[in-house]
Amino acid sequence: MNARPVLVFDGDCGFCTTSVNFAERRIRPDCTTVAWQFADLDALGVTEERARHEVLWVTPNGRVYGGAAGVAKLLMRAGGVWAPLGAALMIPPVSWLAAGVYRLVARNRQRLPGGTAACALPPPPGARR
């Protein structure tokens, strides 16, 4: 396992890639970033299904945080002014709101700046088309 946490994101999504590039430049978390399409998901202990639907934060000991909790862990790892914001995102009821906002953004990422049709999430298994 890595000595640093790993941030797994959707490399086919322009919005996700832009967001990760912003985080690397401005927030500067001490982590490794990798598109799930190029990651050894088995070694990270995550499924492709999960990686397709949310950003994932994988700790060095293998614990996985997804979605808003993954973003919170990234902010906490960055330290400085970002750490308290990340910590707040982990505490209810803020965590509930953050999860809702994350899901809203994830479902509409193809409509956001940098987003393309490739950013659209596939429908959940068994969903009507």
Q: What do you see in this structure?
A:
With 129 residues, the protein is α+β, with helices and mostly antiparallel strands. The protein has one domain. 43% of the residues lie in helices and 11% in strands. The chain contains 6 helices and 4 strands. Strands 2-1-3-4 form a 4-stranded mixed β-sheet. α4 packs antiparallel against α5 (82-88). The protein is globular. The chain starts with 5 loop residues before the first strand and ends in a 22-residue tail after the last helix. It holds the Pfam family DCC1-like. The chain crosses the membrane at residues 81-102. GO terms for molecular function: protein-disulfide reductase activity. Keywords: Membrane, Transmembrane, Transmembrane helix.
Quick synopsis:
This protein has 129 residues and is of the alpha+beta class. 43% of the residues lie in helices and 11% in strands.
